[in-house]
Fold each of these.
Amino acid sequence: MGIFVNGLVFTGCHSQNKEAASEQDSVAMCVSEGMPSRAAATQKAQQEILQGSDDAKMVLIKGGTFQMGSAEFADAKPIHEVSVSDFWMDEHEVTNAQFARFVEATGYITVAERALDPADFPGVSKDLLVPGSAVFTPPKEHVDLTNHLQWWKYVPGASWRRPKGPGSSIQGKENEPVVQVSYEDAEAFAKWAGKRLPTEAEWEYAARGGLKGKKYYWGDELKPKGKWVANTYQGDFPSKNSAEDGFVEAAPVKTFPANPFGLYDMEGNVWEWCSDFYRPDAYEHADRNNPKGPADSYDPTEPGLVKRVQRGGSFLCNDQYCERYKAGSRGKGEVSSASNNLGFRCVSDHAL
């Protein structure tokens, strides 16, 4: 097992037709399977968060019934009928500006920013026990796709304020999706905003936008009428991003066309946290009406880690390596992990 650092786990995103690269979807990067005591210093403050408002425009998603899942991915089988009730969803991913207002109002400290106590990590060098997070760092030359640590690096100092570590900034990027947020961070924001994170079923129903049986959430063609309609990866992953869609990394929200429900970036741009625990067999026992996911988490590749579902893929996904932006596909992430391609959006059961 690799060394865990800062409670961080990288979500894998492997092509289904590359068996050697897809045997393990994530790598454990922390010496503790639970949250370290860095949370203790700020626990009281986090519990006292007051409800505020993110002033986000929300879209009413009228409830209905749809076919959930995908035949292309083992953990998205079987395709099954699911019904969801009406709910409201943010029209776009939570932005840096929105998250900054939340932090200013509450004093919230994200998981990636919290100090680590060496006593919680016996035997681990103190040099490694510093706040930080995972950053995509493309190699200069072509590499094989069996070891994603060739392009993912743990960067001390990386956080939502400095998504790529020291020297980076969100200045001038206020309208880009906030990244480097763990599940705990996303949940705290949602609570402050008087909202919640979407269930996996709500997220997929909204992403499909009423379309049925399509390969991608926008249809069956990768480039409808020759145009890129989502922020994904073009070129030779991970070393040469041709940026044909205009972006090497995250794009400002609402850059690409909305889906039929009026939602933006439901595919690509950044991964989005969902409230469901992750299990590869979740669909074999799923409820059919407003499912909220399994009662606990289990990933056979890392059975000791608690994971939640992530959806939508990111600017690093393409058919060469990462196909998890396709309709019905699923992602997963350890709940204290974060990266510079992971964000979220919120939902509500009533208009705000």
Amino acid sequence: MPIRHLIPRRSPLLLLRTTILQTRPFDRVAVMGEMDFNASSHPQHPKRLVFAPGDIAGPQNDELKAAATIRSAASHLADDIVRSDTSTPTSAMQVELLSHPARAHQFVINPPLHISHLHPTNPLHQFHKWFKDPRIPRSSAPETCTLATASLPSGRVSARMLYFKELDERGWVIYSNWGSKEGKGGQVFGPEYRASADGSVPGDIHQSAALNQGNRWAALTFLWALVERQVRIEGVIEPLSREESEMYWRTRERNSQIGAWASWQSKVLWSVGPEGVADDLDDGRAELERRVKDTEARFADVKDIPLPPFWGGIRLVPESVEFWQGRAGRLHDRFRYVREGQTDHTAEDFKWRIERLSP
């Protein structure tokens, strides 16, 4: 089978020379340079289908043309409809709405989606197929997704946009800074978990993960508007090992590594009350930049910046995966894979039930 590039190559990092092998019938894995992560030689790691998409990004002419073609295909949007400057409905606006039933976006790009178009047993392979759809230009960053987590016991939900970095045969992998209890770190690893870049607050996510004090339930959503598709994943978070986190950490650019050490993510740098501030008052950016300079000085003579104790990867192991495709008249095609047979998320002997959902 021919080798297909997920993303264009760029030196000098060996680990970033990534290609994706054609995966149907799914007996091949992602290759990173000369490093083979086949499960037979590395049984502790699941097979990788995607590694570090977007890290070697760079829009190509053919990708830009593809994006323009897709936008042209979506030109069914009602360009002749006059958009009001106000969101308050008026009688005139209501008449305008009724006279233009296509005012809202209509979905007409895709043909019908049937069960025969889906992978019969594995939603991760189906995701891989959609992810490498040639209609989606790599320059559009298709790895962009929304991660939603919730605090316990309040149940308060928060969400943020980020990039997923790996897809293996267990789930979706994300790397991030988990250092502050004010952010997602506290939700996932528990309210007692804290760590700081200067070491004044000790903590390590790879140790705290074993305490299992946080809310491990989470959701990911991918939206590929150009092809009118989205994927919704719900499941349980499992932390990666330090070894796995370090492997990806070594692929990051040095300034990104410096930034990770300098930032205690989501911790308040500065605030102001209702009374307002003077125009010339510093708003906290200078403090962040000072930390960056201090971190640069700290690692000035260090060739390989070490992995911070509060930085690492997590994998979302799915319990359900929904594939949504837009259709005309809002009669969208929705298929959901639901995990069956095992409540233990570390188990391998489970199967998937496929359901069609009402739009």
